[in-house]
Amino acid sequence: MRVRKNSYPVSWRLMDALEAVAAALWPRRFSAAVPYLMLLPAAVLTGLLVLGLWQMADGSLRTLDTATFLPSETYSLANYHRAITEKLFVTVASRSLYGSLIVTAATLILAFPYSYVMVRTRSAVLRKVLLIALFLPFFIGQVVRAYGWLIILGSQGMVNEALGLVGVAPIRLLYNYPAVLFGLVQYMLPFAVLMLAPALTAIPEEMEAAAGSLGANWVRTFLYVVLPMAKPGFIGAGLVVLTLSLTDFAIPAILGGGSQDFIANAIYDQFFRTSDQGMGATLALLLVAVGSMMVGVVFALFGAGTLAMGRKS
Amino acid sequence: MKGDRSKAVTLWAFVVAALVMLSAPTLVVLGASFTAGNMITFPPEGLSLKWYAKIAGATDLRDAFLRSLVVATICTAVAIPTGTLAGIALAKYRVRLAGAIQVYLLLPFTVPLIGSGIGLMLVFGHWGVLGQLWPVGVAAAVINLPFMIWAVTASAAALDPDLELAAANCGAPPLSTFLAVTVPAVMPGIITGALLMFILALNEFLVSLLLVDARIVTLPVQIYNSIRSIITPDLAAISVVFIAVAAAAIALLDRLVGLDIFLKSK
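Predict the joint structure of the above. Result:
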């Protein structure tokens, strides 16, 4: 008995049953549709996002009825008009845009030497250290990182206590515009380095040696050889940093202390403070349009790069 | 070469600045969690583990952490089958409209996080399912799904189509071929993707903030709410949980695929 049982174990019978079910549900002649069937769950999941955008579009066309505090039944473009004319929104939008441009420039300046050393170093240990220093903050999350900055920069934080030891009065380092920009640069650095690194890897080291042997010093080699060749990487990294810092919520909220709101904070306030869903949806949709456009440009110009999901040709 | 020294000095000045900037918050949080004082001061007032003892007894922090674990588990459980099937389909088959499908599946990356969060909040609110944890997990899966698909397609190079044909030739029916040949071939990608999904969902903040209410806050939201009032060292101790999980994830990732993979050019 025992031998017979082993010769056709239960797991095989189970597989047979599953195969039979699969064959019955999905006859062989449908096999051309198999890849589409495999893509279906991912399409449905992403569909939730599309549904969300649709709901936002619907909400953005309804104004808040101040008498009943309910969204209006009729559609109008009043929210969009308010979004581009009201001073508060224009101030917040220009603060975010201006800030994200500064953040992008500062991040790229810091990210380039970091990527360059990481790619070019002959020491495997150093490369690993630099990679770990990059991934650790990325995986820790924004809130904990911002909390660390609060400890360092707060009015009774490390920097001010250290300054106090040498007799300098406390300086207000937090809850201002530079603090937000500083926090954003730190948050964006890993993204920028990881997007620059493949572009630098693709530049043959012999190019630099050739420039050197022709008499160019390292500054000229960087300016006329490395930077131009790494241009696609810079544009890609720059646009990603620009979009992510333009749309960030946590850093302006925590390090700005409510006085340095970016667009995302204004959207949040519309939903949870003013309870004007329509206005919030309008601002969010405008931001989605701007953000998607910028990322769309990156993908269109360079492909999805390291994120490309298709067949390797 | 001329000026090698000035080049090294300049580069290293930037690298050290960047390293300090990247690591300072992590190191400071670690240090603050071991303080013996009741406030975070500099220089520290001595070492102790008392804040760890305190968070071990704090039910609100522990519950928030457990809720974050549930969210991360749901997210990973949703993303593994979804992302694996889509990844294999994109890598293995010549799909019609592949370009359009890719653009569509990359939507979670092109739509800014605040937009995705608000949209999902409206959808789940419309369905009346807000106030539970599973929508938060599903939302985390939606916004990070491209990572999972990317990880699977990246490892699909290890998938030799001849192997599947060989299995079929030996009489294996399609489902068996898929489970015994195709899936094991892309397993490194599945594990990498699952790891990314888990850790990103564990410290997901903005979408959680939009989808949870006061009864079901996740840990990042709990920390965010607390640092708005007063900064005490127990938050540093609980933050060390995130640092430990992140470190473990990096070690695993390095062992499984090697961190160097992120430096390769296509």
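Chain B has one domain: 55-263.
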